[in-house]
Amino acid sequence: MNTSILHPDIQKFIIENTGADITKLALQKNPFPNVEWILILNQIEARTKAKEKLPTWFIAENIIYPSKISVEQTSSEKTASYKASLISGKTVIDLTGGFGVDDYYFSKQFDSITHCEINDDLSAVVQHNFEQLDVKNCTFYSGDSQDYLEKSNQKWDWIYIDPSRRNDAKGKVFMLKDCLPNVPELLDFYFEKSDSILIKTAPLLDISAGLSELKNVKNTHIIALENEVKELLFEIHKNYTGEITLKTANILKDKTETFEFVLGEENSFSIYELPKKYLYEPNSAIMKSGGFDEVSSIFNIDKLHKHSHLYTSENLIDFPGRRFEVQKVISYNKNDMKNELANKQANVTTRNFPETVEYIRKKWKIKNGGNLYCFFTTDVKDNKIVLICTKIN
């Protein structure tokens, strides 16, 4: 860990230049010749990234940042806070500690945290930052967490793991066994050290593939931030053999939309109907969950088509996603399009429709934006239709 960047003048320079154009800044002469210019530039770039994502770190003094890529890959504070609310106890060990954002929030839920990080420099950075952030209940281990577990006689209330994809798995549909550590292979060993395990994975992982590799899964969580899926979590309890609950959360500025259902519930089915007065589009976490019949059953609303994943009702309901009032439904044909939408401004979405948004815009000269929201989709009778709507806030 290079502490030279903590010099007051350098810290002042980093703060003053946060948000600056790094490309232009890099062409300037280094005002601190005793410290590598690239180190200072990296701190400016990483701190800029942290402003929205890691506000606690951003406002604290004398924080050392890792590379910009590490900041991009770490949990945001909002998802870390939500994640920490899911588990609690006296002790937790994080086998893949990284920049420590998750552990900062675990420190508020647990008496003691163990942060393991194989990168010596990053481990030292997190230890330094936690002193600045006044986290006093965390111990640090720099090295392979596997070695630490094997040598320790301790048993923890929770093990937390964020396995990383191996380099040779890039570009492929990946499985948990393609990651380090290889959780499916090590699960029995982990159960010797804790009865409860929380595994975080990238949203690219197929949920059913993850479940096929794991055992004793009680809950699977899908976490989205501002309607973008950020994390999947598998919550595992030793000897658990019951049903699996799938829980979704979409964290918004002023609220968190939640939805849950039991995987494989036989009583869930959709009722298909033509569009009614109101239209509903599920948030991205629900879309990732695949619980489309459950949405129809639980909210008692109708589905437009088996593959459209749009819902409708005569009376307005609270809903975890976007809500619209249907102003008009037209057939997708030349006459109706020319009369209603050609050369106009509208927000265009396609669901179960043969043409792309880009093609539709170009073909009918529809400008982007405005107050109209148009859904190009297929109805229950397999007709291509357009729902012209206004958004309900």
From TrEMBL:
GO terms for biological process: methylation. It is an enzyme of class 2 (transferase). Pfam families: PG_1098_Fer (PF22013), Thump_like (PF18096). This is Class I SAM-dependent methyltransferase. Residues 278-320 form the PG-1098 ferredoxin-like domain. Keywords: Methyltransferase, Transferase. GO terms for molecular function: methyltransferase activity. It comes from the Bacteria. The keyword tRNA-binding does not apply. Residues 321-391 form the THUMP-like domain. Its EC number is 2.1.1.-.
